[in-house]
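Recall that a protein's primary structure is simply its ordered list of amino acids. Everything else, from secondary elements to tertiary packing, is in principle encoded there. The following example makes that idea concrete.
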Amino acid sequence: MTKTQKHPLEKILESRIAIIDGAMGTTIRTYGMAEADIRGERFKDSQKDLLNNGDLFSLTQPDMICDIHRRFLEAGADIIETNTFGATSITQSEFFVDDPREHGGRKDPAFYQKIIEDPFLNNLAWEINEQSARQCREWADRVGNATSRQRFVAGAIGPLTVSLSNSPDADDAGFRVVTFDQVKSAYIQQIRALIAGGSDLLLVETIFDSLNAKAALVAIREVFDQDGKELPVMISAAVGRGGETLISAQTTEAFWNAVQHVKPLSVGLNCSLGPDLMYPFLEELSEKANVAISCYPNAGLPNPLSETGFDLGPPDMARYLSDFARGGLINIAGGCCGNTPEHIAAIAKALEGQPPRRWETAPAAESQDSQIESRA
């Protein structure tokens, strides 16, 4: 891709640390929603529990979702994410299709081919993504206009509930439940709907399986090429205590080497670990990557006795993220699981005025090599 001018967010990242929002799921739980609330009239006869299908709230409780977006924006978020972490036909099938394993069968590529071709799941996935993006767009523009400060919508693309890297069958290491092309197909539909709804950016996030992420990135490239419109791409991985992606087990440096050909707007780490445990891996990524660095960790470790389900409160997250900024490690900061609008407000206040990380842009590749790499 040949850039003729910088995206407005790029200019912001060079002058200050941008703020991304917090956890949609955590914040939804503070509204006390029950099974009947997510079903509404439309899904009242569904045969499986839907309460953990948070993306569906964008259709059945849009006022609540819009209120959450408003609160994160008013807390200081420059970037808000669409409520689409699981909004693909593959992930939505977990809530609407009988599991063949409960009847002596198994999930395999033949099963997922039916999912990819299912009209109900395809229409549902498109609607969730497009409507979620429109809800974000409306509130980003409202608050942006009211504050004379541009806000951005990131189309959230989650990791799926299946893995391309690992076999679930201990006796057949070569078995995969789904194919690369099936995963890519599901992502292509999600990407097109997120763009149709008005997203400014595409965010491939919480990557635990690098091959799943590759499918998403190939899907993005194909949509850009076929539809003639490109958006900046953000990439964010989830890592374990050793600093490797949770399923594909790539080290932080190896992960960056695997995705740098995309020339993303940013690369970073989210979810997975609390900010204290994330620091050394973020430091390594910051040293290796020649793009902006994002960081939005969980609010510590899970704690069922905590109000948010995680240990750290707003002052704690503000302190840790401020340490990251003083270390010159970040350009985009926010929170993942356990982070409410109050957490984001504290982070935004703590980072106000702190300089962003500096990085050197890689030299432009030869046009032919760049074209080949962009399709890898």
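Residues 363-376 have pLDDT under 50 and may be disordered. Residues 8-374 form a domain with the TIM Barrel fold (CATH 3.20.20.330).
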